[in-house]
TrEMBL record, chain A:
Residue ranges constituting the Dehydrogenase E1 component domain according to the UniProt record: 48-316
Protein name: Pyruvate dehydrogenase E1 component subunit alpha
Organism of provenance: Streptosporangium carneum
Gene name linked to the record: pdhA_1
Gene3D superfamilies, per the entry: 3.40.50.970
Keyword match Ligase: no
TrEMBL record, chain B:
Presence of keyword Transmembrane: no
Cofactor(s) essential for the protein: thiamine diphosphate
Cited Pfam families: Transket_pyr, Transketolase_C
Alphabetically ordered keywords of this record: Oxidoreductase, Thiamine pyrophosphate
Entry protein name: 2-oxoisovalerate dehydrogenase subunit beta
Domain Transketolase-like pyrimidine-binding: 4-179
Top-level lineage group: Bacteria
Family matches, as Gene3D superfamilies: 3.40.50.920, 3.40.50.970
GO molecular function annotations of the record: magnesium ion binding; oxidoreductase activity
Amino acid sequence: MTAEAPRGAEAPAELVQLLTPEGERVEHPDYDIDLTHEEIRGLYRDLVLVRRVDLEAVALQRQGELGLWASLLGQEAAQIGSGRALTDADMAFPTYREHGVAWCRGVDPVNLLGMFRGVNHGGWDPAEHNFHLYTIVIGSQTLHAVGYAMGVQRDGAEAATIVYFGDGATSQGDVNESFIWASVFNAPIVFFCQNNQWAISEPLEKQSRIPLYRRASGFGFPGIRVDGNDVLACLAVTRKALADARSGQGPMLIEAFTYRMGAHTTSDDPTRYRVASELEAWKLKDPIERVRAYMFKNQIADQDFFDAVDAEADELGKDVRKRCLALPDPEPLAIFDHVYAEPHRLMDEERAEFAAYLEGFEG
Amino acid sequence: MTTLTLAKALNEGMRRAMEDDPKVLVMGEDVGKLGGVFRVTDGLQKDFGEQRVIDTPLAESGIIGTAIGLALRGYRPVCEIQFDGFVFPAADQIITQLAKMPLRSLGKLRLPVVVRIPCGGGIGAVEHHSESPEAYFIHTAGLRVVACSNPADGYTMLQQAIRSDDPVVFFEPKRRYWEKAEVDTSSAPADWTPFDQAKVVRPGTDATLLAYGPMVKTCLEAATAAEEDGRSLEVIDLRSLNPLDVDRVVESVGGTGRCIVVHEAPIYNGFGAEIAARVTERCFYKLEAPVLRVGGPSTPYPPSRLEDHYLPDLDRVLEAVDRVFAF
């Protein structure tokens, strides 16, 4: 063994960036974006609000009100940038951390919290938002997304599908199978991989010895790495990939290079496996701070705007907390609901038995 | 009435379902030009095109996972798993996604996906081509599991499975694919026995034989042989394994007082155990003997030169009949 890069991993990775961590706008030969000040203010507001919801959810878990929470801290730009690239007709398939994308799709954050509180396994209507339910088994949703995209293709509809997954998921068979299916059927799909550097405790080098976006070429479609903490670059790159998919040019893999600033979930303790200096280095690349700096420097917003967004965020946090605490527990017999679409005699029998058992405690 | 093999009856059932509903798709390995390794999808791609009869890449999880996605978009995929022993790469998608997504969505999502699996032994095949994995799927809430035993049921039950808004695992006894019987292809769906109901395929008074899939024929032969010994055996084709038509079973065993469950799958923790428990609970005071089980040994499926010893046959069923009368 040598200390050099393994065979096949020599070339340095390229990264699309439009906004530096210092808030400087930079040009890229293939990707550009022209946003109004209002649109930029809108992105900033999204970033701040989803971070605030996330913070509130972590607090609720710490106070025993949620069983678990998977924080998106640090990944706001990847999610808002890609989420805001979607049109209403596009369909998104998330993992369990896409709270920012859910926000962009109009899903009430309380619905996300309800799942982690344990009142249901997924409380929103995917068809209403074109945002599928959270999928917890790693990578399974990539196949659902490709199948859905094949359906879009058969319908002759002009819509794209985007599927989210993480760096760890790229090791899953399902993800690799979804790449193959998307490729051979030329499905209108965008694979959006948030490489947040950690799969719970396992660093990226446990999953891959090449940059993840380069996996795509082996499957026969383009891959690109984007600065996942740059909301403008994520928006520009995703918008282009979605447009290409809609126009029949097939799949694309986007690797959003980002960082999970928090724990994997509230059950995790990252101090056991990563050094504090790594987090400190990534804090300098914070996805929100760079937008704020850019807006200040270019007079896109004034202090009143930032204060108003902060105040709105606090109100949102309070509102989400209040409504989360008010979520009723489901009725015991709800266990038997929705297991089958059509009448099923075993469900009927067990529901009746359980109801009779429960009635035995009454009066 | 038309005389059809089971394979052809299934083919005709799929064809009719595809004609009736443009959202019905067929997908799997080699289902297109080849018509499937057992020719069950023969001619469908030619008549319905590659957009509706899809030769998939060779990955079972991919087949079921993309079928789920197609169903989410409003399609009704009928997936072929080439052989029973090859379903396991798809087990995760079937168990964690297909079975559970409707509940996860509080009923907002429906997954009308059919997973066709040729099952069972008796064809002299190599390893992984002769298994009976039904218990894994019967145990998975959210799935309907059915098994056809003859061409007429193959024709109707497959269409009923395709029309169902629930995911259905559909077992086809591969060694019966070439056996012929009369099929009424002009009958109306409203006249068909619901696919979650069992059928008494031979009435009798002294003992009840419960079977499904490939063992129904074996049990019918056993009943004929037992008649010569003066024993009247009732044979029930369970057809639906989840849900089980337990009332039909209880009605029969309540009358005969004796019950034998026959399946190819290993006995230990097999479906026969569930039936025995339920029959015992419901018929305790009417039973003349314990519920007996006839099945494969609790071993992996053996090399094919041994499969005749492994598989329940006429003698094994009759031996159990002797035992159930000896109590």
